[in-house]
Amino acid sequence: RDIRTLTEVETKSNLQIMNFDGNVLLLGYDGADVMSVNGQQTGRIDNPMQNPHADIRGDYMVMYDKGGKNVALYKGTHRCFAYESEQVIKKAKVNKDGDVLLLTDEVGYNFGISVLSTKGIVEYIWKIGDVYIIDADISPDGKKIGVAAISTETGVIQETIIFADIVKEEETARVVVGNSVPIAIKFADSGSA
User: Average pLDDT for residues 175-185, to the nearest whole number?
Assistant: First the structure.
């Protein structure tokens, strides 16, 4: 006979429930609680935000205030850095090595993409004005950016996938995708998107 233990959790302020290093992460306005699969609290991250979101890869988690300006990187429950963006944050992603991609509004452009190191140092900035970004990701080695976007430059909606090389600081590929709207892009652990 299978007997299971249920743990009651207060969820009114918890907006996201995620898998975090074999545990359950309860992300809310006041931060995050890390719970074991047995329902025991194993950690706590105090990081109040108005609209908290997170992305997790490997041991790293980036927490960001969507529509706000604050982002923080964690390895487990240890904070690596806290950063305040000059622009409003749309999305943040992290790779397995802790490199953070920050997608923001950008004055004079449609979007800005910044890449931050595990120490919170801005290592790359890409300002984009000719497309509307739906999603973006950073490669596992931290050397490439992939963007899923739409463009209306020709008067019709064009679904586009764009790749950029961070080291060379240049766009390396732009592919117009017919008859589909890209809603997300994610690099596999192998580095392919």
Answer: 80
